[in-house]
Amino acid sequence: MKEIAPNAPNATSVRMTVTQPGHTSYNRRARRISLWIAIAVNALFLLLLYAAQTRLAERTWFTGGLVCLPQVVFAVPLAMLLVWSAIERDRVAIALNVVVGILFVFRVMGINVPLGRSHGGSTIRIMTYNIHQGARGIRRVRDVIEDLSPDILCVQEVNSWGKWGDPVRQLQQLTLGWHIVRDGELAIFSRPPIISHAVHYLPSGTGRAILEARLRVKGRELVVLNTHFNLAAKSDLPGWYRMPLPKRISKMAAVMDAQARELMMVASASGESVIITGDFNMPPRWLACRKITSRYRDAFRAAGWGFGYTFPTRLPLARIDYILIGRSLGVRGCFSPRTRASDHLPVVADIVW
């Protein structure tokens, strides 16, 4: 009979030693397949999200809600998948996530590269700014305006509110010699002379308006429109935040569409040398906004870098403030400087004649 050495491995331990490398390889392959499936599912989700936001937008309350959400929230699964790919050291998966991420940033989040900038010609600087009644200090607002030095300033929410007083009177100290027109919460300050002005009230019982000013700039007439869209009719406001979300989004869509159509009618009657400014309270993918930007050039899209987010100032995640221009005008540059003087960031554009 043959003796077995005390330290010799038994049959079971030998079998485990032989099969363990194959088992590890199988687990790694399974994890990699699971990772690729997750990447494919996420890419399909983002594609469907983009299609729904582009084709439907506010036509349904659900897709309207998706459009209004900060789009960065949809990047969370992508970030998790990228970390997972790095842990697995899967170069193919990392590359796939990077490609999906680039498409997401450009198509869903709307990062902009200025491909429509104009060159040559004289420029005039215009600035639009929702100053929130100067609640954070009108002196801070004045400093922002002074630093940016616009030729034309369009402001919203300049109505007197509580202890803050009338912002327009305080801003006049900075703009001595400027021409000023005002209606309620809207005002236009202009270095060039204002020939005439008019007020066009927005429909649907919003209580909001379009302030129009005709200017004489370097021997030519320029029309500037300043507006601030309301999210709802005044009759809906008392119970607005208690309203079920589907009903609220549906009402908002109807009110926004009516305001957009009125703005386009007023702008069409103003000719091609028109600049539209204001707080539209809707993102660029909102259908009502796209109706306007299909006819008038979005200055930031033409000449701005980045996302152009303007609200809220502490963590800007939405672009709802705009400068749009008629066909006879160009734009050399457009930006939204970081400041906390209001709850909105200003938008500044250098318009080319």
Structure notes:
It is a single chain. By secondary structure, the protein is an alpha+beta fold. The protein folds into 2 domains: 11-108; 123-352, Deoxyribonuclease I, Chain A (4-Layer Sandwich), CATH 3.60.10.10. It has 9 helices and 12 strands. The protein has helices at residues 11-55, 61-68, 76-88, 91-108, 138-148, 167-172, 245-268, 287-293, 299-303, and strands at 123-130, 152-156, 179-183, 186-190, 194-201, 209-217, 220-228, 274-279, 297-298, 321-325, 330-335, 347-352. The strands form 2 sheets. It has a 6-stranded mixed β-sheet. It has a 6-stranded mixed β-sheet with strand order 5-6-7-8-10-9. α7 links the parallel β7 (220-228) and β8 (274-279). α1 (11-55) packs antiparallel against α3 (76-88) and α3 packs antiparallel against α4 (91-108).
Summarize the structure.
This protein is an alpha+beta fold and 353 residues long. It has 2 domains: 11-108; 123-352, Deoxyribonuclease I, Chain A, CATH 3.60.10. Helix content is 39%, strand content 21%.
Mind telling me the CATH superfamily name of the largest domain?
Answer: Endonuclease/exonuclease/phosphatase
Distance between the termini: 107 Å
Number of helices, counting only DSSP H or I runs of 4 residues or more: 9
Question: What count of domains describes the coordinates?
Answer: 2
Based on the structure given, which CATH architecture of the largest domain is correct?
Answer: 4-Layer Sandwich
State the strand order across the main sheet: 3-4-2-1-12-11
Supply the helix-strand structural class: alpha+beta
Within the CATH hierarchy, at the fold level, what is the topology of the largest domain?
Deoxyribonuclease I, Chain A
Rounded radius of gyration (Å): 28 Å
The gross shape turns out to be elongated
CATH class of the largest domain: Alpha Beta
Low-confidence region ranges: none
Q: Strand-and-helix sequence, N→C?
A: HHHHEHEHEEEEEHEHEHEEE
Q: Got a strand count? A: 12
Level of helix content?
25-40%
What is the average per-residue confidence, as pLDDT, rounded to a whole number? Answer: 91
Largest sheet: 6 strands, mixed
Measured by DSSP, the beta-strand proportion falls in 15-25%
